[in-house]
Amino acid sequence: MSEERGEPSDGEGIRSGVEESTGDPRVVLALNAVLSTWFAWVVVWGLDFLGFIALTLQNVATLALILFAVTYVAVLR
Fold this sequence. Notes:
- The structure is a single chain.
- This protein is mostly helical and 77 residues long.
- 68% of the residues lie in helices and 0% in strands.
- It has a domain at 24-75.
- Helix 2 (25-50) crosses helix 3 (57-75).
């Protein structure tokens, strides 16, 4: 039946493709950058709400770069 739908019958499929894939490091770096920036914005917004620091682009960018570097070192170590 799987041959009728054009699926390989010898066990190759999405599961084996995912298990053997090493991935594209650019995707990991892009996700790291986006998530670090988003998290930095949330943290700086919260600290601004509490009155500790101002919500500025410089504060968000600084924290985002720090988070990006820490996660890069931790993940790719």
